[in-house]
Amino acid sequence: MLSEQTIQTIKSTVPVLEVHGVAITKLFYDRLFTAHPELLHVFNHANQKQGRQQTALANAVYAAAKYIDRLEVILPVVKQIAHKHRSLGVKPEQYPIVGEHLLGAIKEVLGDAATDDILAAWAEAYGVIASVFIGIETDMYTNSALQPGGWRDFRPFVVARIDKESDVITSFYLTPQDQGPIASFEPGKYVSIRVQIPGETYTHIRQYSLSHAPGQPFYRISVKREDTNPTVPAGKVSVYLHNQVQEGDVLWLSAPAGDFTLDQTDTRPVTLLSGGVGLTPMVSMLHFLVTTQPNRKVTFIHAAQNGQHHALRHEIERIAMAHPQVTVAWCYTQPTASDASEQAYHKQGYIDLPWLQSLVPTVEGSFYFCGPLPFMKAVNQLLIAWGVPEDDRHYEFFGPSGALS
């Protein structure tokens, strides 16, 4: 337990962290990777270059300081980060390394303002927070390894099949190289893929949502090729998977992880909203719903640029044809002439509240949504405007969490 003096000292740094948090975390990562370049095998290099990881860590440090006397408030975020750490293979012995360089960055950025009392308080607080993470992650590693078909770290899987789903999204069907059983999972979870790309010094690890139902003899991930936006660096792993990985190749996978999962105790109508490649966890949820809750009404709404960018459409429509409780609706921002002639979409432009209400007549139900950040913000604001309670709004970010406000 932290002393009252330590708690008050940490709380006194909240305004400073609000102003200097990102500067501290940028310096922290510089110090960390300079002293321990081997950790570059674990961290997402793209998120580092774009500043997303630094911002995410700054937000986490700020929240920890703000709620240092009520850490249970941030426990959901802690568990979300712990899932990611477990899927990356983060180890307890790495926490002291992180603590050393985080405190060093605080001292360097704040200068004389970082008094001995402040640094001592943060050292004590970090020890408590790290022990919470280590405890949660230890349980996660144990549960992952002991579950039927489970394993602890990374396991080799063979690429059994590759399907091109759209101009930019491809599915990879993965089966265990040892031909043993594989762990089941809750729809919405992801796996980490670890690859050694030829010519790259460090391994790269990325998380991809599982896009099929549990209970299959394979895992399926559906990956967007991230090299179409000239303002954003190309995604090394996604391009490698699309350009170089072939059927028969081996990829190393973590066991399924993540806390964005379908509430299986809820029997109310459910609406699944997705944008772009954000449909992957929704398709997994859809497969699961029609087999385990066949009487539950499901509305599947997807936004895409056009039919050429719309992945897994025919698979979803086949499910809807076979299960009358499922309704689907497509929203295209830039439909092609072919899309128009085939009446391949239900709305042109963007999802808005009147159209959503025409498809889903009541807020009495649960809403799951996933996609690019602008899509997420727009959908969240629509649901708030409609009066959907916070507890019924479930979402996941791809990459480090950002604010939806």
TrEMBL record:
Q: Name one GO biological process term.
A: nitric oxide catabolic process
Q: Where is this site: Involved in heme-bound ligand stabilization and O-O bond activation?
A: 29
Short name of any one Pfam family annotated for the protein:
Globin
Q: Where does heme b bind?
A: 85
Q: Decide whether keyword Protease is in the record.
A: no
EC number(s) on file: 1.14.12.17
Q: Where is this site: Influences the redox potential of the prosthetic heme and FAD groups?
A: 84, 396
How does the cofactor attach, per the note? Binds 1 heme b (iron(II)-protoporphyrin IX) group per subunit. Binds 1 FAD per subunit.
Name the residues that bind FAD: 190, 206-209, 397-400
Q: Give the active-site positions.
A: 95 (charge relay system), 137 (charge relay system)
Gene3D superfamilies listed in its UniProt record:
Globins, Nucleotide-binding domain of ferredoxin-NADP reductase (FNR) module, Translation factors
Q: Which UniProt keywords apply?
A: Detoxification, Dioxygenase, FAD, Flavoprotein, Heme, Iron, Metal-binding, NAD, NADP, Oxidoreductase, Oxygen transport, Transport
- For region Reductase, the annotated ranges are 149-405
Reaction equations catalysed:
2 nitric oxide + NADPH + 2 O2 = 2 nitrate + NADP(+) + H(+); 2 nitric oxide + NADH + 2 O2 = 2 nitrate + NAD(+) + H(+)
| Binding positions (NADP(+)) | 276-281
Domain Globin span(s) in chain numbering: 1-138
GO MF annotation terms: FAD binding; heme binding; metal ion binding; nitric oxide dioxygenase NAD(P)H activity; oxygen binding; oxygen carrier activity
Q: Which domain of life is it from?
A: Bacteria
The domain-related comment in the record is: Consists of two distinct domains; an N-terminal heme-containing oxygen-binding domain and a C-terminal reductase domain with binding sites for FAD and NAD(P)H.
Family annotation (PANTHER family)? FLAVOHEMOPROTEIN
Q: Which function does this protein serve?
A: Is involved in NO detoxification in an aerobic process, termed nitric oxide dioxygenase (NOD) reaction that utilizes O(2) and NAD(P)H to convert NO to nitrate, which protects the bacterium from various noxious nitrogen compounds. Therefore, plays a central role in the inducible response to nitrosative stress.
Q: Protein name, please? A: Flavohemoprotein
Gene giving rise to this polypeptide: hmp
